[in-house]
Amino acid sequence: MLVVRMLRPIVGGMVRTLACRSCTAILPPVLPVRVLSSSPVQTPTDAHFHSASSSETGPPRVLITGGLGQLGMGLANLLRNRFGKDNVILSDIKKPPSHVFCSGPFVYADVLDRQNLREIVVNNRVTWLLHYSALLSAAGEANVSLARAVNITGLHNVLDIAAEHNLRLFVPSTIGAFGPTSPRNRTPDLSVQRPRTIYGVSKVHAELMGEYYCHRYGLDFRCLRYPGVISADSQPGGGTTDYAVQIFHDAVKRGKFECNLRPSTRLPMMYVDDCLRATLEVMEAPAESFSMRTYNVTAMSFTPDELAQEIAKHVPEFRITYCVDPVRQAIADSWPVSLDDSMARKDWGWKHDFDLPELVTTMLSLHGCDTRIAQAN
Ligand SMILES: NC(=O)C1=CN([C@@H]2O[C@H](COP(=O)(O)OP(=O)(O)OC[C@H]3O[C@@H](n4cnc5c(N)ncnc54)[C@H](O)[C@@H]3O)[C@@H](O)[C@H]2O)C=CC1
Ligand SMILES: CC(=O)[C@H](N)C(=O)O
């Protein structure tokens, strides 16, 4: 006998769609039924996808993968403040420092181990998954096969588990998802995407797969293309924009910095607080507000030379020199110089707080530099 089950909950006699406004307008509607017999249209993966249950109440139960990198711990702090310490589980394959271990739940999770990941989701009744594990642009070029595994196979595991267990899934994308044939100024959300790094290719794949699962299975997939993110309390993990983090440390501790990009290399950037707030906001936004599932977000664009000049306003003795890394330079030259994030601003109210002057004073003071005294010099 052919058994059919609704893929999505029925609200008021209508199939409730989790897809966004534009998706449903452009694409044919997703089939509202899933075949559970041995019909030839069934795939093994399809059979594991549960019908969506939107009956969860109370705060979300959050899992962050790859949480011990530059961004994950800050994200955990933000989400713990909002949803309670025990509702946010940080995970990684690295051993956490003791202050992280003591600040809330931490588990070992290798995104390549699907069974382990599934157990964590089930045993902890996870409802939101923020998938931060990745090899970044420069690290990916240094180890393509590992980047392919972590960024693509890892994503497949996460997507399947999120669809099986009806999770809300956030996957960060990047300016690296664009390439040399994309428009470079005010790059729009929808434009040519032919990146030339394994990192970029894997992120375009993540965007497309997430959107496909959203249309096909009703997965509540949400994605932001972050620019380079600048933070003070954690080290960057092998990216092309890392210089803009390291420069503050070296300016304060050494009064000088050697930059691995050319002085005129302009890239989109954002302070970490804006980045993490954007992530929380897009996760909390009602699905109905989305006209798409992958949004550009940005705050500012600057060059190493402009950043150094802004730092020198506060640290007058600061000197920058240049020793260009050809791999990172080629990557940076293929990325946008600025992003158009007007759709995020229009659809769910995205607004950045930090421009270059605020970024510099904040970063310097977090590194222990008294910018008021330096300004007086
Ligand atoms: N930091 C930035 O400027 C930007 C970051 N993003 C994205 O945000 C996310 C987080 O970025 P960061 O924290 O900067 O990255 P990161 O490189 O600092 O951290 C990535 C983490 O993934 C973990 N990881 C590696 N292999 C793993 C595996 N098999 N299983 C589980 N975890 C594994 C690493 O141990 C590391 O802690 C990434 O997806 C990245 O692509 C996007 C654009 C800009
Ligand atoms: C912009 C990014 O995605 C990251 N910081 C990198 O430089 O690889």
TrEMBL record:
Purpose: Catalyzes the NAD(+)-dependent oxidation of L-threonine to 2-amino-3-ketobutyrate, mediating L-threonine catabolism.
Pathway annotation from the record: Amino-acid degradation; L-threonine degradation via oxydo-reductase pathway; glycine from L-threonine: step 1/2
CDD domains: TDH_SDR_e
GO BP of this protein: L-threonine catabolic process
The name this protein goes by in its record: L-threonine 3-dehydrogenase, mitochondrial
Family matches, as Gene3D superfamilies: NAD(P)-binding Rossmann-like Domain
Catalytic activity line of the entry: L-threonine + NAD(+) = (2S)-2-amino-3-oxobutanoate + NADH + H(+)
InterPro entries: Epimerase_deHydtase, NAD(P)-bd_dom_sf, NAD(P)_epim/dehydratase
Family: Belongs to the NAD(P)-dependent epimerase/dehydratase family.
Annotated source species: Heterocephalus glaber
Domain of life: Eukaryota
Alphabetized PANTHER family for the sequence: L-THREONINE 3-DEHYDROGENASE, L-THREONINE 3-DEHYDROGENASE, MITOCHONDRIAL
EC number: 1.1.1.103
